[in-house]
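If you are new to this repository, start here. Below is one unmodified record pulled from the training split, so you can see the exact layout before writing a loader.
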Amino acid sequence: MVRISDLDIIKALQENARTPFVELAKRFGVTETAVRKRVRKLEENGVIRRYTVEVDPRKLGMEAVATIGLDTTPERYIHVIDELKKMGSIESIKRSTGDHMILIDVWFPTNDELAEFVKKLESIDGVTKTCPAIITECIKN
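And here is the target side for that same chain:
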């Protein structure tokens, strides 16, 4: 029987998480049961944490799509993260070791609403810097 790697399964599911196990089994030359067991193991081990959809925010009327870098004072870092978690307009929050301590992805219908949101970010106790970058095109997710 053909040897299939966890990475093969993961890459296939990243292309389309709704691909039936039967189709994956045919693609990799293994049984559906083998695929099902491998996926279950990946889920149980926390390798696959969840299944999601990829959305084009502009097709939802969101013209202002941005990634915003945030810096904080060290003592208020956790406070800032907690405040960000409460804000409904944020699509993702990431800790970073790069140019900024925190990176957030946001979508807004207009640039004015994005500008207002950045002002709210700047008013959070502990935020020392905000650096919005408008996303013009997503090449690969």
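Two things worth knowing about this chain: The first helix runs from residue 6 to 15. The chain has two domains: 6-44, 57-134.
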